[in-house]
Predict the structure.
Amino acid sequence: MNEAQIAFEKQQAILREKYAVRSLQDAHRFQELHDQLAIDDSADVRQQIESLAHRMAGTSGTFGFHDLTPPAITLEEAVIAKRPNSEILQHLTDLIAKIRELMN
């Protein structure tokens, strides 16, 4: 491996670690949104869930966390389809668990 490849791989590792930290922060935010949705089915809470899930679905594979993409897409699609709270809450729980499994 040449110096450029080594430098690239080091940069990739740094970015992957930063993404892992952000994903754990997102898991915390997803948990807050889960708790809010459990008591108040507001359009604002659903919009925040959709936005955060969309971002995760679009970026997780880029940083090598391909296992996060399907549950993030499933959650986003459930919100868009206006699925019942119980279903969205379950998708949130599943995604939070997957994030914590992969990042810890």
Summary: The chain has a mean pLDDT of 96. The chain has one domain: 3-103. The two ends are 30 Å apart (CA to CA). DSSP finds four helices and no strands in the chain.
